[in-house]
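W.,

You were right to be curious about this one. When I first looked at the sequence I had no strong expectations either way, so I just let the prediction run and decided to look at it fresh. Below is the sequence, 296 residues in total, followed by the output.
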Amino acid sequence: MRFLFVDQILELNRGEYVRGIKHITPDDACLGRDEQGRAIFPSSLIGETLGQLAAWNVMYQNDFHKRPVAGIVSCATVHRPAYLGETLELESFIDCLDDSAVQYHSIAQINGEKVFEVEGALGPLVPMPDFIDDDEVRRQFAEIYRPVSEEEKVPVVSAAPILNADRTVPCYVFSFDRILQVEPGVSLLAEKRISRSAPYFADHFPNNPVLPMTVLLECKLDLARQFLAQAAFPVNYQFSSMRKIKMNEFVHPGAQLVCHVAVKKRDEKECVLTFRSEVNGKRVCVLEMLLRVEGV
């Protein structure tokens, strides 16, 4: 697995705006499946792709001396799945940038249809060499920075989704290792042990491997599905958004991470779950997840 997802940067205004694309193909090693078994690009990794797009702009702006890392996200909303065969049109807008942090918002679309949104993202800037050699980052940027001229600008047209992809198309499972405790419909406690053998550590980051926040979020989405299955609520809730996301600490290989899930509120239209992740009793990530009944 390569944990770098932007295929091409089409347009970049330093410190202001960046536009790019991501093709979803069988070459992707991190595909998932929806409830019907169709191959998709996991929603949290769409957020990762948008975050990487914004980061390329920030790193280019400061001549690759610093890079942003995940911190706070006000809200991340999924509008629909992104299927194998489609192309994500990516845009990130820098709202505020200084020597210590960047604030941005982003959107991913397919054929002009909104797929995923990130609002109120805030990432602290850290010295580049602490995480990855700046020469390596420059090389990676040169691979994808291929802006188009005004004459070449045409709408990005996505191919039709491959909805009946062969089940042999490899998919990567983002999940917790085991459920430790469960009170159906009320709460759940799960554990994930972080191994250096996980394939995303090569890119995140060579000089200081840390668990990507988006991988943790995708694991929490899977945990929410397990929670709902065990709760057997009388209505069918579907994931809508994550909000109030805050990553407090880096999680390194060797960590034993536990996650507490609980119902904050629930009615016939929506359910709000709270997630708190800890390592050695210390909080590393919190968020709320909004689930809604389809059509509401």
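Here's what jumped out at me. Residues 178-293 form a domain with the Thiol Ester Dehydrase; Chain A fold (CATH 3.10.129.10). And, maybe more interesting for your project: The first strand starts at residue 8 and ends at 13.

Coffee later to discuss?

I.
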